[in-house]
Write a structure and sequence with these properties.
Blueprint: H1 8-30, E1 38-42, E2 45-48, H2 49-65, E3 70-73, E4 77-78, E5 84-92, H3 94-98, E6 105-112, E7 115-123, E8 128-133, E9 138-140, E10 143-145, E11 157-160, H4 170-183, E12 186-188, H5 193-201, E13 207-211, H6 215-227, E14 231-233, E15 246-250, H7 255-266
Parallel strand pairs: 3-5, 11-12, 11-13
Antiparallel strand pairs: 1-2, 3-4, 5-6, 6-7, 7-8, 8-9, 9-10, 13-15, 14-15
Helix pairs in contact: 1-2, 4-7, 5-6
């Protein structure tokens, strides 16, 4: 930092290096991991020593990169009480990791106030590290990426996630799922929201939607999508996609049509879910 200004390009490079170091630990532990190492935070909400130790490594490293910064992390909690705050998911896709399935990732976003200004998502199985700096575009492994140019919903591949512990909108979810089965090229459920977002950013998917998510699930990936040229909203068509527990991202070309479809089933119903502010 010089004269109060962050050198975001330097910070982003250091965060990428930290994510690789932590990722090496996660992959090393994968083969030793067994069912006795699993703990339940809640129904279908799993955690392990790998999540917790990865988070500790990340927090220690991030606070060296930016001394005095705050942290909001999946396992340790936190708040936005500092000018700069790191929002961390140390292992996005824990269930996949536990079952030794790809994919899973480390997700790190840096906020200034309540605005993300840098993000890194490191998908460890395919060695793809996505990054973005506000206003400077998005990259994977240092190469610029952008969303797809597909303009027809019928030719779009869609990603989603399944509700796993909040079933208040299950019927609406299933009705939307059924419609998209008939009106798109297909749907995929990978099991890591941060990676789903990055796959929209690089054009592998045309859209992604899910409800019940937390800021650490989506913050880094949302910035990466935005910087790759995509559009984002919540299920009501507003901008509360980081904290309001619902998110829709598209390549932009399909956003209006896709939101009309989502709105048939969800518009005005998101108050059934408790927002994270």
């Amino acid at each position: 930092m010089r004269n109060g200004q962050l050198k975001l390009d330097v910070i982003c490079k250091e965060v990428i290096e930290l994510s690789h170091e932590t990722g090496h630990f996660i992959l090393k532990e994968k083969d030793k991991f067994n069912s006795s190492d699993i703990r339940k935070k809640g129904f279908n909400d799993l955690v392990s020593y790998v999540d917790k130790n990865s988070e500790k490594k990340l927090i220690k490293g991030l606070q060296k990169i930016l001394p005095g910064s705050g942290v909001l992390a999946e396992e340790g909690g936190g708040s936005f009480d500092k000018k700069y705050t790191w929002v961390i998911d140390p292992l996005d896709g824990t269930t996949n990791f536990i079952h030794k399935l790809p994919c899973f990732a480390i997700s790190i976003a840096l906020f200034e106030g309540k605005t993300p200004i840098a993000g890194v998502v490191n998908e460890l199985n395919f060695k793809e590290c996505f990054s973005a700096i506000k206003g400077k575009g998005a990259k994977v492994n240092g190469r610029k990426i952008k969303v797809s140019s597909q303009k027809k919903l019928g030719d779009a591949l869609i990603a989603t996630g399944f509700p796993y512990n909040d079933f208040g909108l299950q019927n609406e979810y299933m009705e939307l799922f059924k419609e998209l089965m008939h009106t798109t090229q297909g749907l995929r459920r990978i099991g890591s929201a941060s990676v789903d977002l990055c796959y929209v950013a690089m054009g592998r998917f045309e859209a992604f939607y899910e409800y019940g998510l937390k800021p650490w699930d989506v913050s880094a990936g949302a910035l990466i999508v935005k910087e790759a040229g995509g559009r984002l909203s919540d299920f009501d068509g507003g901008n509360d996609y980081l904290f309001g527990k619902s998110i829709v991202v598209t390549n932009g070309y399909l956003h209006k049509a896709f939101m009309q479809t989502v709105g048939k089933y969800f518009k005005g119903k998101m108050n059934k879910l408790q927002s994270v502010k």
